[in-house]
Amino acid sequence: MHHGSSLLLDLDGVIVESVQRTVEGSRIVQIATAPEWVGMCPQCGQKSTRSKGWVTTRPRDVQVGPDRPLLVWRKRKWLCTNTSCDRKVFTESTPGVPSRARVTPRAKALLVEAVLDGDRSVSAVAGDYGCAWHTVHGHLVVVADAALGDEPEPVVVLGIDETRRGKAKWETCPETGERRWVDRWDTGLVDLTGDQGLLAQVNGRTSAVVIDWFDARDETWKAQITHVAIDMSTVYAKAVREALPHAQLVVDRFHLVKKANEMVDTVRRRVTQAERGRRGRKSDVEWINRRRLLRAAERLTDEQRSTLFEKLTSADPHGDIAAAWIAKELLRDVLRCTDRGGLRHEIRDRLYRFYTFCAACRVPEIGKLATTVSAWQEPMILAITTGLSNARSEGYNRIVKHVGRIAFGFRTPENQRRRVRWACTRRSRRVASSRRQCHC
Ligand SMILES: [Zn+2]
Fold first, then answer.
1. How many whole angstroms separate alpha carbon 271 and alpha carbon 246?
2. At 248, is the secondary structure helix, strand, or coil?
3. pLDDT at 183 (0 to 100)
4. In the chain, how long is the greatest CA-to-CA distance?
């Protein structure tokens, strides 16, 4: 046949000999090795003249037109005549269909793209295409690992956060047959101000696993980190102090608010129990106002605020709930200094008001909150003055969960980490590749 049909298939190194349609309607394309690749040894590149006969392979390729044509490639086996080459026998191969390739490289690239950027599972894509899981997965590993690189680029602000891996559940131990409660957690390390996304995900949430990860990095990389943002986790704080003694700890402001809200909830539950001798019900005043108690004060009107306190006085004779609520608001006032750039004297004044109020009201839960805040005071002040937060880590946690759902859970953590890192760095990779294109 003529050159045009080869161009239509456009598979490097092969020519189209004929195209037939089967009774079922699919197309069969008979291909042959392009003259420049006939007899060429893939090892030494020399052309052989000693043919050992013919073989037929059926490499899978991409869709051309409405369907995916079946390729039938009749090619020769050869003996390499180059005496200095250690390859004895070979079959012809071309850039479009390398040796032993059951799937063409361009088809593999499409499959990998469908998985990585089409957010699908390896098994779903392999199933659609009718090829083995390993074919898709193997190529995915090559593509992803080459793009992601082994070592992270310099990071200035690092975020450390925990994520639950899968649902906590009862499992039977394969060795002992014992039932045990399994609750797996991972630790994510995130580039908070750069564009590298999730740098790594390590199994577990102990100081040791975090320290181990830092130990594997070189000293100059570690020295570049100036701040580390964490939740109020003593475990991560310990790891950072040990592995990155020069870096400053920043505690996430939103977690402080969360802690304060939890405290208000605890007080409300205790007061209800004491006053009514039972658990709270939806009809109780303090229950009705639960949402309002937690809602930010500035979002309530003056009238709403005074009604709230009036109603609560009857349900809260010692004023514990009201006090808890005020303490929470005073802490939020401290954190709100972030909006004005974190003026030192403003922070100091508001902190003083918070502590003196907490000390005066003698409610155990409020006292406990004050103690917690004081233990985290320096990292909290740093969060206010720098405006840094761990919000981006939380965004990546959502990606981690999303990727987990796509794959219906991963058999090996390694595969999960790769997919998650790919998803988290997708945007920055796109920017980088479009930049590259602009320059050339
Ligand atoms: Zn050779």
1. 45
2. strand
3. 73
4. 102
Residue type, 42: P
Q: Using the mean position of ligand 1's atoms as its centre, give its distance from the Cα of residue 99 in Å.
A: 13
pLDDT at 217: 92
CA of 86 to the centre of ligand 1 (A): 7
Q: Tell me whether residue 125 is exposed, middle or buried, using C-beta atoms within 10 angstroms of its C-beta: 0 to 12, 13 to 18, 19 or more.
A: buried
Between the CA of 30 and the centroid of ligand 1 the distance, in Å, is 27
Can you tell me whether residue 198 is helix, strand or coil?
strand
Question: Which pTM was predicted?
Answer: 0.69
Q: For residue 408, what are the CA distances in angstroms to 130, 182, 401?
A: 20, 18, 10
Give the residue ranges of the chain where pLDDT is below 70: 1-3, 150, 166, 280, 282-298, 309, 311-314, 407-411, 426-440
> Looking at residue 397, what is its pLDDT?
77
pLDDT on residue 411: 67
Centroid of ligand 1 to alpha carbon of 109 (angstroms): 28
pLDDT of residue 312: 67
Contact 250, 228 (CB under 8 A): yes
Question: How many whole angstroms from 386 Cα to the centroid of ligand 1?
Answer: 63
93 CA from centroid of ligand 1 (Å): 13
At 436 the three-state DSSP class reads: helix
Cα(94) to ligand 1 centroid in Å equals 15
Dihedral pair phi/psi, residue 29, rounded to 5°: -110, 115
| CATH T-level topology, domain 157-252+390-439 | Nucleotidyltransferase; domain 5 (3.30.420)
**45 CA → ligand 1 middle, Å:** 6
Q: Ligand 1 centroid to 149 CA: how many Å? A: 33
Q: What local confidence, expressed as pLDDT, does residue 429 receive?
A: 63
Specify whether the CB–CB gap between 272 and 286 falls below 8 A.
Answer: yes
CA–centroid distance, 106 to ligand 1, in Å, is 26
Cα angle for residues 275, 277, 280 (degrees, 5° grid): 80
Distance in Å, CA 89 to ligand 1 centroid: 8
Contact 354, 373 (CB under 8 A): yes
Tell me the CA–centroid distance for residue 39 and ligand 1, in Å.
10
Query: How many whole angstroms from 46 Cα to the centroid of ligand 1?
Result: 6
